[in-house]
Amino acid sequence: MTEPVVEYRKATESGCEAAMSFPPESDFFDGHFEGAPVLPGVVQTGFAVRELERLLGRTVRVSEIKKLKFAKVVHPGERVDFSLARKCDGEWTFKYESGGALCSSGILVAE
Protein backbone atom coordinates (compact mmCIF):
# COMPACT_ATOMS: atom_id res chain seq x y z
CA MET A 1 0.00 0.00 0.00
CA THR A 2 1.38 3.37 -1.01
CA GLU A 3 1.36 5.90 1.82
CA PRO A 4 0.55 9.54 1.12
CA VAL A 5 3.42 12.00 0.89
CA VAL A 6 3.13 14.07 4.07
CA GLU A 7 4.54 17.60 3.81
CA TYR A 8 3.87 18.33 7.45
CA ARG A 9 1.91 16.95 10.38
CA LYS A 10 1.39 18.67 13.69
CA ALA A 11 -0.71 18.26 16.80
CA THR A 12 -3.01 21.13 17.69
CA GLU A 13 -4.79 22.04 20.89
CA SER A 14 -7.88 20.11 19.84
CA GLY A 15 -6.55 17.55 17.34
CA CYS A 16 -4.09 17.57 14.44
CA GLU A 17 -3.39 19.03 11.01
CA ALA A 18 -1.47 17.68 8.05
CA ALA A 19 -0.73 18.51 4.43
CA MET A 20 -0.43 15.52 2.13
CA SER A 21 -0.72 14.25 -1.40
CA PHE A 22 -1.35 10.81 -2.81
CA PRO A 23 1.22 9.89 -5.50
CA PRO A 24 -0.16 9.18 -8.97
CA GLU A 25 1.38 5.68 -8.85
CA SER A 26 -0.52 4.88 -5.63
CA ASP A 27 -2.54 1.69 -5.76
CA PHE A 28 -5.54 3.64 -4.41
CA PHE A 29 -6.17 5.00 -7.90
CA ASP A 30 -6.10 1.60 -9.64
CA GLY A 31 -9.49 1.00 -11.19
CA HIS A 32 -11.08 4.03 -9.58
CA PHE A 33 -12.02 5.53 -12.68
CA GLU A 34 -10.24 4.48 -15.83
CA GLY A 35 -8.76 7.49 -17.57
CA ALA A 36 -9.86 9.93 -14.82
CA PRO A 37 -8.57 8.57 -11.50
CA VAL A 38 -9.79 10.04 -8.21
CA LEU A 39 -9.03 9.20 -4.59
CA PRO A 40 -11.86 7.00 -3.28
CA GLY A 41 -13.88 8.26 -0.34
CA VAL A 42 -13.19 5.09 1.62
CA VAL A 43 -9.45 5.88 1.42
CA GLN A 44 -10.01 9.42 2.67
CA THR A 45 -12.06 8.10 5.57
CA GLY A 46 -9.50 5.38 6.29
CA PHE A 47 -6.67 7.88 6.52
CA ALA A 48 -8.77 10.04 8.86
CA VAL A 49 -9.06 7.02 11.17
CA ARG A 50 -5.30 6.39 10.89
CA GLU A 51 -4.56 10.00 11.81
CA LEU A 52 -6.87 9.68 14.82
CA GLU A 53 -5.00 6.54 15.91
CA ARG A 54 -1.68 8.32 15.45
CA LEU A 55 -2.92 11.26 17.54
CA LEU A 56 -4.27 9.07 20.35
CA GLY A 57 -1.36 6.60 20.20
CA ARG A 58 -3.64 3.57 20.10
CA THR A 59 -5.98 1.55 17.90
CA VAL A 60 -9.51 2.91 17.82
CA ARG A 61 -12.79 1.25 16.96
CA VAL A 62 -15.01 3.50 14.85
CA SER A 63 -18.62 2.59 15.59
CA GLU A 64 -20.20 5.20 13.31
CA ILE A 65 -19.36 7.83 10.72
CA LYS A 66 -21.81 10.72 10.71
CA LYS A 67 -22.44 13.60 8.31
CA LEU A 68 -20.07 12.15 5.70
CA LYS A 69 -19.88 14.55 2.78
CA PHE A 70 -17.87 14.45 -0.44
CA ALA A 71 -17.82 17.81 -2.21
CA LYS A 72 -14.77 17.82 -4.52
CA VAL A 73 -12.76 14.95 -5.97
CA VAL A 74 -9.10 14.52 -5.05
CA HIS A 75 -6.86 13.85 -8.05
CA PRO A 76 -3.53 11.99 -8.12
CA GLY A 77 -0.72 14.16 -6.76
CA GLU A 78 -3.08 16.90 -5.57
CA ARG A 79 -2.07 18.50 -2.25
CA VAL A 80 -4.77 18.34 0.40
CA ASP A 81 -4.92 19.93 3.82
CA PHE A 82 -6.30 17.60 6.47
CA SER A 83 -7.61 18.52 9.89
CA LEU A 84 -8.99 16.47 12.74
CA ALA A 85 -10.59 18.04 15.82
CA ARG A 86 -12.27 16.73 18.91
CA LYS A 87 -15.95 17.64 18.79
CA CYS A 88 -17.00 16.07 22.09
CA ASP A 89 -16.22 12.95 24.06
CA GLY A 90 -15.70 10.16 21.54
CA GLU A 91 -16.51 12.27 18.46
CA TRP A 92 -13.96 13.73 16.07
CA THR A 93 -14.59 15.91 13.03
CA PHE A 94 -12.33 15.60 10.01
CA LYS A 95 -12.01 17.41 6.73
CA TYR A 96 -9.86 17.47 3.63
CA GLU A 97 -9.49 20.71 1.68
CA SER A 98 -7.66 21.62 -1.50
CA GLY A 99 -6.99 25.21 -2.50
CA GLY A 100 -9.42 26.39 0.17
CA ALA A 101 -12.26 24.21 -1.20
CA LEU A 102 -13.79 21.43 0.86
CA CYS A 103 -13.11 17.97 -0.59
CA SER A 104 -14.67 15.84 2.16
CA SER A 105 -15.71 15.94 5.77
CA GLY A 106 -17.36 13.85 8.45
CA ILE A 107 -17.57 12.90 12.10
CA LEU A 108 -15.90 9.77 13.46
CA VAL A 109 -17.54 8.21 16.51
CA ALA A 110 -14.68 6.28 18.09
CA GLU A 111 -14.15 4.16 21.17
Structural features:
14% helix, Thiol Ester Dehydrase, Chain A, six-stranded antiparallel sheet, 1 helix, single chain, mainly beta, 111 residues, 6 strands
What report would you give on this structure?
There is one protein chain. The protein has one helix at about 40-55; strands spanning about 5-10, 15-20, 60-70, 80-90, 90-100, 100-110. The chain has about 110 residues and is mainly beta. The protein has a single domain (about 5-110), classed as Roll (Thiol Ester Dehydrase, Chain A), CATH 3.10.129. A six-stranded antiparallel sheet has the order 1-2-4-5-6-3, with helices on one face. The two termini are about 25 Å apart.
Write the layout of secondary structure elements.
Layout: E1 5-11, E2 15-21, H1 41-56, E3 62-70, E4 79-88, E5 91-98, E6 101-110
Antiparallel strand pairs: 1-2, 2-4, 3-6, 4-5, 5-6
